[in-house]
Design goal:
The protein is built from 10 helices and 15 strands. A 9-stranded mixed β-sheet has the order 14-13-12-11-7-10-9-8-15. By secondary structure, it is α/β, with parallel strands linked by helices. The chain starts with a strand and ends with a strand.
Length: 348
């Protein structure tokens, strides 16, 4: 395959509008050819030149589309991905991969048999703070990591009228935000020995979990993943303690807010986060005070995901997120749910 890769987008909800369409159009070598939507006016308001198909099937039938992107409600992922693969398309599906491990496993097999590439949009591997944390851990500046805490806290006291808030497979904060944090933990540390999860529905009128607190065990090391929707004064995004130093970083990656307000790539200062983390070393100065060092936060780069997908389709490099790695996150999501239901630690 040479030249530009034609991309079809299924649906035009928040994820398509805020993330996928702008990133696809900004990435050299990719071209958004068409969108499948029951509301063509929404698409044309943002992208007046893009054709709109009435159904996903009509989109999959187009010969000018090589890659299909599926950022639809979680419960629809399996059927749509399977149909797209059967039509001979490469596929990117939004996280979480599916709503069950069984569905994810079957899609991995189908993609391999079809000789098509299948990837999951775990974009937060390219968050500014996560890129910084990954570099910091690789540097050895913290010594041996003993405690890693990752929070995704928000203040959203009102229950919204949307599918994520309805009791259905794949809804709730654990499958939404927890899938991000689990994927990041897997990238950094691999598969844990066990998981324990506490879930709650804390907001008035909540019908699904809107709070989670997970503990992953790696020998004597602990990885804590936490998310809440009633956090008006968020604490640290990352808290890491090692044998030589500690690192604390506040604030979420800025790229989602940039895309939400309509910023388009490329633009000056994209992904730059002015909230730098602090490294506290265990070696005291004269007077017994610990040494504090500011750690500049690397720029975030969501565009790198689609650059990697493009290169993988063209045979120039590996997929940035494989279906198999996303399957591991699905296994942890399910194991966490079992832990929350039974009140027990689930070991692997």
């Amino acid at each position: 395959m040479k030249g530009t890769i034609g991309v079809g987008l299924v649906g035009y909800g928040m994820a398509s509008k805020r993330f996928h369409a702008p990133l696809i159009q900004a990435q050299e070598g990719l071209s958004l050819v068409a969108v499948a939507s029951r509301d063509p006016g929404k698409v044309r308001a943002d992208w007046p030149e893009i054709p709109v198909e009435a159904t996903p099937g009509a989109l999959f039938a187009r010969d000018d589309i090589d890659l299909v992107v599926i950022p639809t409600p979680n419960a629809t992922h399996y059927a749509l991905v399977s149909e797209a693969l059967a039509a001979g398309k490469h596929v990117v599906v939004d996280k979480p991969f599916t709503v069950t491990v069984d569905e994810a496993e079957r899609l991995c097999v189908q993609a391999a048999e079809a000789e098509r590439l299948l990837s999951v949009f775990h974009n937060r591997r390219w968050d500014a703070d996560f890129l910084t944390v990954r570099k910091l851990l690789d540097s050895g500046a913290l010594g041996r990591m003993m405690h890693f805490e990752s929070h995704f806290d928000r203040y959203r006291p009102e229950v919204a009228q949307r599918w994520r808030e309805e009791p259905a497979p794949g809804s709730g904060a654990w499958f939404d935000l927890g899938s991000h944090l689990l994927d990041q933990a897997l990238v950094l540390f691999g598969k844990p020995q066990s998981i324990w999860l506490d879930l709650a529905s804390q907001r008035e009128g909540a019908r699904v979990d809107d709070y989670f607190h997970a503990v992953l065990r790696y020998g004597e090391n602990r990885v804590v993943l936490h998310g809440g929707t009633l956090v008006a004064a968020p604490g640290a995004r990352f808290t890491i303690h090692g044998t030589r130093a500690s690192y604390i970083k506040h604030g979420l990656d800025p790229q989602e807010d940039m895309l939400k307000r309509g910023d388009r790539l490329p633009s000056p200062g994209w992904g730059e986060d002015w909230r730098h983390g602090m490294l506290t070393t265990g070696q005291a100065r004269e007077g017994g005070q610990p040494e504090l060092h500011e750690v500049p936060t690397l720029p975030g780069d969501y565009l790198a995901y689609y650059a990697g997908v493009r290169d993988a389709i063209l045979g120039r490099g590996p997929l940035p997120v494989t279906a198999e790695s996303a399957l591991e996150a699905m296994r942890l999501l399910e194991a966490g749910r079992r832990s929350a239901e039974t009140g027990r630690v689930v070991s692997f």
